[in-house]
Design goal:
It is a single chain. With 473 residues, this protein is α/β, with parallel strands linked by helices. The chain has 2 domains: 303 residues, 3-Layer(aba) Sandwich (Rossmann fold), CATH 3.40.50.720; 159 residues, Alpha-D-Glucose-1,6-Bisphosphate, Chain A, domain 4, CATH 3.30.530. 36% of the residues lie in helices and 21% in strands. It contains 14 helices and 19 strands. A 7-stranded parallel β-sheet has the order 3-2-1-4-5-6-11, sandwiched between helices. Helix 3 packs parallel to helix 4 and helix 8 packs across helix 9. The longest helix is centred in the last third of the chain and has 27 residues. The protein is globular, with a radius of gyration of 23 Å. The termini are far apart.
Length: 473
């Protein structure tokens, strides 16, 4: 079967596609950045990547029309609150227009539970998208999920940060809001088993876990799984803005995503019972089971996808990564280091393990200060870490950098800075002809950018020298 999967580089898409490929299907993936997606699927057969953007209808002409089923997994949780709902509806409208001109029989859409009378803007947008996708020319199957719990999911990582960093919390009152968390494995089971299932055509079902929990109970159960003693006091005086800053400074989330989550967390996410579990032969696991499963994946370094790798996790990189692959020369400051390589494979291993828990090999204290300053001025800081301790692909988040190019065989890694800067910055590592090259490039914006470079130059001398020496040691 030929299947179209939108959101192929997203949290759900990257986990669903391998399941479909294992069944022998041919997968068509329209992606905005083909070069980024090629890194994820370069060793896969029966998958075709097509550069297309559902915000631009003309770009959809390259997508083949002879498809039978499509998964609609396009969401924009962290976009500007003023425009995200417009963008989501535009994407849905353009998708529908394409779908009605194709041979599609079924569209499977993953939405959010929208039963509360007072919905947040994001949940209301998800509901509007469902209405937009409905058509007489193909069947629409909608699954509405609550909080998704899994390694790398935004909700899981935020709860993890809160529980593991804070022994006691004075928290906003929305922690008493009720929800029904659902394991990512169960979400994937619903999506996978719904494929070409005719009894689900033109139906909509809430999917949720077996327990109704408040966010406070989720935090405490998470702590119990981790064998941590935690106490939480909820107060009614914390405004949505203060709540957003609370999440932003304590967790690895961006401020935009924190604001979106706070607006949604005041809404109860309780599903309506149906016979969908019986129809699909799925028995959703408990919240604690989902948390334990997520930590197994973390311990095995087998996290397939993470919300942190989304471009919107920093809010700075809005274009395609390959547009930053040509490091500029004109009007730039450079810090260039060169050493005769002592052990190529060991040095490559160190380069590919840089950042995250490994650190940056020299001046750890200075890197932490830079991360704190970046966070103070609204940046990501060092909180995102990295998805895998030794693997890097173009598009991955790496602390306050973004991987632009990563080819271990060619011995080259290029990073683009997503920290708050009066300019743009690149950091390149390259090993060739028995030498290791390390180049930091900064393109300043105005006088402020130039003053910034000269102010940090003394620190760069120590940090960059120490870094290349320890990589080559």
């Amino acid at each position: 079967m030929k299947i179209l999967v939108t959101g192929a580089t997203g949290y759900i898409g990257k986990r669903l596609i391998p399941l479909l490929l294992n069944d022998g299907h041919t997968i068509i993936c329209p992606v905005r950045d083909k070069k980024r997606a090629q890194n994820y699927y370069k060793n896969q057969e029966n998958i075709e990547l097509i550069e297309a953007d559902f915000l631009h209808n003309h770009s959809l002409e390259a997508i083949p029309k002879n498809i039978e089923v499509a998964y609609y997994l396009i969401h924009s949780m962290s976009n500007s609150a003023k425009e995200f709902h417009v963008l989501e509806e535009k994407c849905a409208f353009n998708f529908k227009r394409f779908a009605e001109s194709s041979s599609l029989k079924q569209v499977i859409y993953l939405s959010g539970i929208t039963n509360d009378t007072k919905l947040s803007k994001h949940l209301l947008s998800r509901k509007n998208v469902e209405n937009t996708l409905a058509s007489k020319k193909y069947a629409l199957t909608t699954f509405k999920a609550g909080i998704i719990v899994g390694s790398g999911s935004s909700s899981f990582e935020i709860i993890r940060d809160l529980v593991e960093k804070l022994p006691a919390m004075i928290a906003p009152k929305w922690l008493n809001t009720k929800t029904q968390p659902l394991a990512i494995r169960d979400v994937l089971s619903f999506l996978h088993k719904a494929l070409a299932k005719e009894e689900l055509y033109n139906t909509s079902h809430d999917i949720f876990g077996p327990e109704i929990l408040t966010y406070k109970e989720m935090l405490l159960q998470f702590a119990a799984v981790r064998k941590l003693k935690r106490s939480i006091l909820t107060v009614p005086v914390m405004t949505p803005k203060l709540s957003s800053y609370w999440l932003y400074f304590v967790t690895s989330t961006s401020y935009k995503l924190a604001s979106s989550l706070v607006n949604s967390m005041g809404v109860e996410v309780i599903g309506e019972k149906s016979d969908i579990n019986k129809i699909m032969d799925i028995n959703p696991m408990s919240y604690k089971e989902a948390v334990k499963l997520a930590f197994k994946k973390i311990e095995q370094n087998s996290i397939i996808s993470s919300w942190k790798d989304s471009y919107i996790s920093s809010g700075k990189l809005k274009n395609f990564v390959h547009k930053f692959i040509n490091v500029p020369e004109f009007g730039c400051f450079k810090d260039f280091k060169k050493r005769k390589v002592k052990d190529k494979q060991k040095s490559l291993g160190k380069i590919w393990a840089i950042g995250g828990e490994t650190g940056w090999y020299y001046g750890t204290f200075l890197w932490k200060i830079r991360g704190f300053l970046d966070q103070f001025f609204g940046g990501t800081g060092l909180r995102r870490g990295r998805r895998h301790p030794t693997e890097l692909n173009a598009g991955d988040a790496l602390d306050f950098w973004r991987v632009i190019y990563a080819d271990k065989e060619k011995g080259k890694l290029l990073l683009y800075a997503e920290m708050v800067l009066p300019g743009e910055a690149w950091l390149e590592f390259k090993i060739e002809d028995n030498f290791i090259y390390q180049t930091a490039t900064f393109r300043p914006h105005g006088l402020g950018g130039r003053l910034y470079w000269y102010a940090v130059m003394p620190f760069h001398w120590f940090v960059f020298n120490g870094m290349i020496n320890n990589i080559n040691k």
